[in-house]
Amino acid sequence: MKQRLPLLVFLALLAIGPSVLPEFYITLLNYIGLYAIVAIGLVLLTGVGGLTSFGQAAFVGLGAYTTAYLTTAHAVSPWLTLLIGLTVTAAVALILGFLTLRLSGHYLPLGTIAWGLSLYFLFGNLEFLGGHTGLTGIPVLGLFGFELHTGREFYYLIWLVLLGAVLATQNLLDSREGRAIRALKGGGLMAESMGVNTARTKIVIFLIAALFACVSGWLYAHLQRFVNPTPFGLHIGIEYLFMAVVGGAAHVWGALVGAGVITILKQWLQDLLPKLLGQSGNFEAIFFGILLVLVLQRARDGIWPWVVRLIPIKAAQRVVAEAEPLPHREMPALGTVLLEVKDACKRFGGLVANNNMSLTVKAGEVMALIGPNGAGKSTMFNCISGVDPVTSGEVRFIGERIDHLESREIARRGMGRTFQHVRLLPTMSVLENVAIGAHLRGSKGVLSASLRLERAEEARLLAEAKRQLERVGLGEHLFDEAGSLPLGQQRVLEIARALCADPCLLLLDEPAAGLRYLEKQALAELLRKLRGEGMGILLVEHDMDFVMGLADRVVVMEFGEKISEGLPEEVQKDPVVLEAYLGGVE
Amino acid sequence: MKRKSLVVALLSAGAVTLAYADITVGVTVSATGPAASLGIPEKNTVALMPTNIGGQKVNYIVLDDGSDTTTGVKNVRKLTSEDKVDIILGSSTTPVSLAMIDPAAEAETPMISMAASAAIVEPVDAKKRWIFKTPQNDVQMATAITEHMSNNGIKTVAFIGFNDAYGEGWWQQFSKVAEARKIKVVANERYARTDTSVTGQVLKMMSANPDAVLVAGAGTPSALPQKALKEKGYKGKMYQTHGVANNDFLRVCGKDCEGTFLPAGPVLVASQLPDSNPVKKSALEYINKYEKAHGPGSVSTFGAHGWDSGLLLAHAAPIALKKAKPGTKEFRAALRDALEGLKDVYGAHGVFNMSPTDHLGLDQRARVMVKIEGGKWVLQK
Amino acid sequence: MDLQIALLLGQDGIVNGAIYALLALALVLVFAVTRVIYIPQGEFVAYGALTLAAFQAGKTPGTLWFLLGAGVLVAVIDTVIAVRAGALGRMKRIVLWNLAYPAVVAGLVLGLEPAKLPLVAQAALSLVIVVPLGPMIYRLAFQPLAEASVLVLLIVSVAVHTAMVGLGLLFFGAEGSRTTPFSEAQFTLGTLNVNGQTLWVIGSSIVLIIALYQFFGRTLYGKALRATAINRVGARLMGISTTMAGKLSFTLAAGIGAFSGILIAPITTVYYDTGFLVGLKGFVAAIIAGLVSYPLAAAGAILVGLLESFSSFWASAFKEVIVFTLIIPVLVWRSLTSHHVEEEE
Fold it and tell me: Which of C186, C312, C319 to mutate to test the interface with B (most CBs of B within 10 A)?
C-alpha cells in the first residue's frame, strides 16, 4: 500500500484538477496528456525496444486526418472513425514496419524520417484532405448524449486514455512478451536463441506505438476541431522523441514527465523571457535548446529516474508465488543420437573457420569439444544452434535436418545453449533473465499481457525460472540485477536460462570459466545429474580437469578441423593432440 | 448611475482594479518558424500601436506561435482564460488563423486575423461572427493580376508557388479567375521555402512555353524561381504576388526582378499615390512610424496588416467603451458589434467598410498594380 | 523530357549533390569519432553564408557576438576545472583560444570595414568567425556527455540545433540573403550553359574531398582521428585523447559546413533555417554510407542530388515524397548487404 501512495496522491490530484485549476492549466494538461500518449509509444519502441523513430507524428496525423475527413465529409460518427483510424494506422504501420524494420542500425531512423516526411507532404498535397490549409468544422465528441465541448470535459477523456496506456504498457513490459521486448535492445541474438521471434516482436511494438499515436491524433482532432499538416511534420516527430528522452526513455512514467516538462518549460519561457529581455527578439527557442542540453548533461537517463530517487520509498520485497509446474518435454530414450553433424563447413569470405567437422551427441552423454583458442569451437556452436548457419554440410537434430532453420526454430525443437561471451540483460533481474529461457513454454500474447489475463501462466513461468535458479545455486539472487553478479555466476545464470526452456540437448560454451573450485564441483555435479536424467550435453571448456572428469567422449579441434576423437583417456594420449596443445605453445 | 461611478472612482484608486479597467489586447503572430518574415514586422508593429484608446490604457500581450497551429490555439486559450483579453490580433498565416477560430468564438472574444485566405471570415456564421481580418483576399489580388494579364495580351501562364498554404491558396484562386478570363494555365509547380534549387520546376515551366510566369511566394524566397528563370533565359513577363512586398525582396532579387508586376496594398507605394487618395495619409503615417523605429527601408506590407488591425481596434473600442467596461463579456460583445459596424476607416491597405456579411470590408481601393523599375516599387496606372 | 533538359537536370543534381557530399563527409567524420549524429551541421552552412552576406551588406554579423560569448563561457568553465584540478599550466591555452583569439577577430572585423575588402578576404574572415564555434559547441554541449548513449547524444544534438536556429533568426532575421559570386563567367559545353560558380562548387568539393583524404592518410592528426573512429578505447590507451579528437572533428565539420555555405550563397538564397533541409540531405547520404564510408557518402550525396533534381521536374509538389520513398529501397539494400553486427550498448 505504502508503495502505491505517490501514485494514489497523483491520481487524486488529477481527479480534482479540473474543479480547482484555472482554464489555461487544463488546456496545458490536455496537451501534455496528448503528447504523453505518443511518448509512451516511443518509450516502448525507442527507450525499451531500441528502435529510434522520428516518424510518430505522422501516425498522429493518420488518426487525426481519418476522423477529420470522415466526420466532415461523410458525417461518420467519431467513435466509428476511431476504429477506422486504428485500422488504417495498423495497415500503414504494418506496411512501413515490414519495409523499414528490417533496416539495421542507423538505417532505421532514416527510414522513419523518410516516411515521416512523405506522409506530411501527402497530407499537404491531397486536396480532399484540405491541403496545406487544413480541414475545419470537425464535430465535438459526444458520449451518451453528453457533449465534450470544453477543455475541462475533454480533460477526463484524455487522461483516462493516457492512464490506460500507462497501465497497459506497464503490464505488457512485466510479462513474457515484455521480457522479449526488453531483450530487443542489446539482446536480440540471445532472444532468438531462446525462441523469441525478434522480427515479429519489433513489428508488435512498432504497431503499438503507432496505435497510441493514432489515438492521440484522434483526440487532438476533436479537441482542436481543426487539422492541417503542420502538427504532424518531422519537427514535431523529433519533439516527441525529445519528450521521451528527457523524461527518461526507458520508463513508462518518463513519457509523462517528459511531455509535462517540455510543455511547461516552453510555456514558462514564453511568459518569462519577454519580461526579462523585452519584446524585441525571439529568445524562446534559444533558451529552450540550451536548457535541454543542460538537463541532459545533469540527468542523461532522463528526469524520471532522478524523480524516483527523490521519493523515499523502497521497492516492495517481491516473492515468486508457488505455481503448478510447466509440462515437460518427452525426453528421447537414453542413447538416441540427438545431434549429428556431418562434414560441416563454415567460411567467412575466404577464411575457413570450420572444415569438414563431424560429431555426434547422444541422449545421456556429455560430449566435450576442446581445442586451442581460435580452433573454431564457438563457430561450431553457432553453426549447430542456427545463430550463424553452416556454409555446407549437414546438421541433424533428433533425426531432422536443422542446418537451415532459424535459431528460434532449433530452440523450439529442444536445443538449449549458453554463450562464450555472456549475453544477458544486465539491468533486468536475475529471475527475469532466466524466465526469457521459458519463452517458448508460454503462449499468451500482447493483448492478454496488457490486460493481465495471463497471470496464471506468468506465475508458472516465473516459478519455473525460480526452480532452475535454485537448482544452479543462484536462489538467493532472484531479484538482483543480473549485471551485478560476478562473471562466473553470470555464466551459471545462462545455464539456468537454458534449462528453463526444458531442452533435451544442452550446448555449454565454457561454463566453468571464472568459477571457483567449489563452484566448479557443484556445476559438475549438476551436469552429471542432468546427464542422468537423459539429457545430452555438448561442452566447450578449457579446464582440462573439469572436462576429463566429466566427459564421456571428447572431440579435439584445431584450425577448424577435427584432429582427434574418442574417450577422454584415449584423446589425452593422442600424439596429435599433444602436439596441438604443447607444440602450439612456445 | 452616479453611485456606480463613485464606486468605480473609489476602486480605481487601488492599483489592482486599475489594471482591470484597461483594455487588454492579446496578440499572437508567427515570429518564428516558416512564417517568421511575416510575423516579425507584425510583432514590431504592435509596439507602434496606440497605448491609449478613448481615455483607457491599452495593454498588449504579444505571443509567438512559431507558425504552428497547435501553439496558436494554445495561445488563444491562454489569452482568453489567463489574461482575459478583450480582443485577439493574429495570427500571420491562414492555417493558424483558421485553427484559432474555434477557441476564440468559444471564449466569445473578437479576433482580427492578419492572414490572407477568405475562408477565415467567410461565410459569417455563428463562429465566424467573432472573426475579422485585414489583409486583402487572395481572390482580389488574383483578379488584379489576371486583369493586367488580359490587358497585356497574355494567353498562357505558368504558375509556381510555395508548397504550403500560401501557394495553395493562390493556386486555387488564381486558377479559378484565370479560367474565367480565358487565360490558360500551362504549368502548376511547387517549391519549398528553403529549397536551394528550382531548376526542375523552371525547366518544366519553360518547356510549356508560357507568355508569363506567376510566382506565388512570400518574401525573399520568391526571388529564387525568378532568378532561375532569368538564368535559363526566360524572356516572358513575370508576375509576383503581394507576398513579396518588402525591400529585402528587392535586395535579394536585384536586377533579375526588373520589370516584374505585382498587385499590392497601396501602402507599398504610398508616397506615389495622388493626394486625393484617402489611404495615402494613413499609409504614410504608418511608414514614418515604423521606419523611425526600425530604420529607413525596413517597412513591409505585412506589418501594415497588423497596423490596420490596430486601427480597427482603435476605431471600434471607443464605441464599445460606451456600452461596457473592458474585461467583461459585455465589452467583448460590444467590441465585436462595433467592429462589424465600422465604416470608412482609412487603413494603410485600404478603406474598411464592415458589415454583418463582410468581415473584411476592403474594396478595389485596397489594391494597386506595381512594377519593379530601377530597384524600386513603381505604381502603375 | 529531351536530352537538353536531362543534361540541365543532371548538372543541377550534381551541383547540389556536391554540397550534400561535403556535409555528408562532415557528418560521417563527426559520427565516427564522437558517435554524435550532428544535426546542427546544417546551421554552419547558414552561419557561414549569412556571415559573409552580412559583411557584404556592411553589417557586423551576429555570429561575432556568438563567438565572443561562447569563448567567455568556455574560458570560465575550463578555468574553474583547471583551478580545481590545480592544473594552472592549462590557463595559457584557455585564454589564448577562448578570449584572445575572439578578441583579435572582433578587432579585425570592427576595424577593417569588411564591406570594402576583396571577396577572398571577406570569405576568410567569415570562416575565422564561424569555424571556432564548432569546437566551442563541442566543449559546451557534447564533451560532458562523451560517454552517453547515441540516442542521448542525438537528442542533445537536436537541442543544439534548436538553439542555433533561434540564434540564427536573432542574428540575421527571417529574410534570406545572397552573396556576390566568385566568378561571373559563363561557359558553353556543347549545348549546355555552365556558369562559373557551379564549377567553383564542384571543383572546391572535389579539392576538399581530396584534401580530407590526404589529411586522414598522411598527417598525424588525421591518423589520430581515424584511430579514434575505429576504436575509441584503444586510441585512448595509445594516448589520443577523446576530447582532442572530438574538438578536432567538430572543427573540421564546422569548417566544411561554413565553407559549403560560402560556396552556395551566390547561387541560391540562404535563410537562417536553410541548414536543416540541406543538412538532412547530407544526413541521408551519410546514412546510405552507413556513417562509416567516405566514398559511399559522396556517391550517396550525388544520388540524392540527382533524385531531387529529377523529381522536382516530374512532380514538384511531391518532390520530398519521391526522394524519400526512393531512398527506402536503397536503405533496405544497404541493410541486407552490409555485415550485420549486433550493437551492444
Answer: C312
